[in-house]
From TrEMBL:
NAD(+) binds at residues 18-24, 112, 119, 136-138. Keywords: NAD, Oxidoreductase, Tricarboxylic acid cycle. Residues 12-156 form the Lactate/malate dehydrogenase N-terminal domain. It is an enzyme of class 1 (oxidoreductase). This is Malate dehydrogenase. Substrate binds at residues 99, 105, 138, 169. One of its GO terms (molecular function) is L-malate dehydrogenase (NAD+) activity.
Amino acid sequence: MESLDAAPTRPVKVAVSGAAGNIAYSLLWRLAAGDVFGVERQIDLRLLEVPERVRAAEGVAMELADSAFPLLATVTVTDEDTRAFDGVDAAFLVGSRPRTKGQSRADMLEANGRIFIGQGRALNDGAAEGVRVLVVGNPANTNAYIAAKAAPDIPRSSFNALMRLDHNRALSMLSAKLAVPAAQIEGLVVWGNHSDTQFPDIEFLTVGGKSVAGDIDRDWYENELIPRVAKRGGEIIEVRGQSSAASAASAAVDHMRDWVAGTNGRWVTVAQPSTGEYGVDEGLVFGFPTTGLNGRASIVPGLDLNDFQRERIAANVEALREEAAIADQLFTSI
Ligand code: NAX
C-alpha cells in the first residue's frame, strides 16, 4: 500500500485495538471527527477486539454509524490482527493486559508479549509504508518495544508509546502553579517510562522565552509534582470510580496529530525507541523531549543535564532495561 503522503486524497486507514474499551469509546469519535488527520481526509476505521468482545465492538460501530460523521467512510469490526492492520497508515494499540493484583511482572509481560508480538508481526506483513503505531496499552513502553522488535521491516521509529497524558498532566499542574495558561509554557518533558519512575523535568521550562525553573518551589516540585503526576491515574480512579479514559484518548489524539502535522518547534513528550540519546540504551522506548517537524519526530539534542536529572533518567533506563530483558526472552518461545 502506498504511503499516505504519496496519496493525499485517499482515505486514511486507521486501526484501533481495544475498540470496545473505555479509551476507544472516546478516541474513535475524535478520529471520526477529523481531530487527528484533518477535516479534509476521509477515514476507514478498523475496530480490533478479542473474540468475546467483538459483539460489543459491533455496538460501538453502530453508534459510530448513528453519529453520521461526514468523514467516516467505512468501519470494520474484527478479531483478526491481519485484517485489522491490512494497509493501515496508523494504529492505536490500546488493548492490552495491564498487571492484575498479585500478578508477577514476568507473567504480565508474557501475556503482553503474546499480544504485541502477534500484532507487530501482522503490522510488519500488512501495514502501509510510513505507518505510525502508537501503543497506549500498558506497560506501554515495553509493549511498543515488543511490537517494534516483532516488525523488522518497519523502521523502529514508527513505534511510539503514549506518554503525552503524563506530559499533559504535568503541564496542567504547572499552569495552575505558575498561574499562566498551559499554552504559554514551553520546554516541558516527562522522561522515561509510563510508570512510577517517570520524571517530569522542569529544568528547561520557559514562559514567554524566560526561564521559570528558578521560580518554582523545589520542595513542591520534588515532593508533590513529580509523585502526583505518576499517581494521577490512581487519583482519577479514586474520585471518578473508573480509570482515565477521555483524557487518555485526548492525549493519544494530541500525540498522533503532532506526529502527522508537526509541533512548530514546541516540545512535547514522545516515548520512542532510543538511538542512544542521553545515555538511554538503543532500542528502549523512552520518553524524550521531542519536536515534530515535517511529520517526523526528532529528539531535542544537546541538552546539558545536572546530577538530579541524570539520576532520574538512569532509574528509568534501569527499569526499562529489566522489562526489555524479560521481553527479549519471549521471542524465543512465542
Ligand atoms: P478497557 O479494559 O476498558 O478496554 C481494553 C479493551 O482491550 C477490552 O475491551 C479488551 O477486550 C481489549 N483487548 C485486550 N486484548 C486485546 C487484543 N489482544 N486485541 C484487541 N483488543 C484487546 O481499558 P481502557 O480503559 O480502554 O485502557 C486500555 C489500556 O490503556 C490499558 O492497558 C490501560 O492500562 C492503558 N492506559 C494507558 C495510559 C497511557 O498513558 N499510556 C493511560 C490510560 C490507561 O491507563
